[in-house]
Amino acid sequence: MARRAETIELAVLGLLHEGPMHGYELRKRLNLMLGWGRVLSYGSLYPALKKMLRASLIEETMTTKTPGTPVSKRPRITYQVTEAGTREFERLMSEVGPTAWEDDNFDIRFAFFSSTDMEIRLRVLEGRRTRLQERLDRVQSQLAMTQKEVDRYAAELQRHGVESVEREVRWLSDLINAERKGELDRAGADIQDPGADTTSTGRQATQK
Length: 208
Prior knowledge:
Distance between the termini: 72 Å
CATH topology of the largest domain: Arc Repressor Mutant, subunit A
Structural class: mainly alpha
Strand content: 5-15%
Largest sheet: 3 strands, antiparallel
Number of domains: 2
Helix content: 55-70%
Radius of gyration: 24 Å
Number of strands: 3
Order of helices and strands: HEHHEEHHHHH
């Protein structure tokens, strides 16, 4: 439960980093990020918001009623990140330990990768790939041992799990290669200024 609360906190800080939101919008965006299999209830969201309010990571404002608004209609609460919340978000996104590549936390981290530099992205991606490769090796060895002991449907389910992990490992490898290629491209651009005239004529003109 504590780990899930930390994941929700990171996601909320990341979303509010983009701009203020009310509770309904936060829950909708969080459910899109977490995926269809991990629906977030208000019973999980609002305790997390209250904890973050107490820690001064976020603050709330009440929207004023406009003329003509029914008296029974309650004012809407909007949440926004504080300076302390921004610092906490940056700290969490800079972590590259094992929690950064666990299933739930990795998905949230990846959604906000644009807020981190390339070195951190690479370390998280490589850590995630290593973790999945270890899981894949373990599952494949277990599959080889148990394949003769289970029926066709159980074996098919195990095979499906292996293929899913293999796909993610390939996907991570493609991302890592793309990040490294981007580093090489930027390094090349720094070494060779496309706008510089390196011909002898250009150098002579500069000397004159």
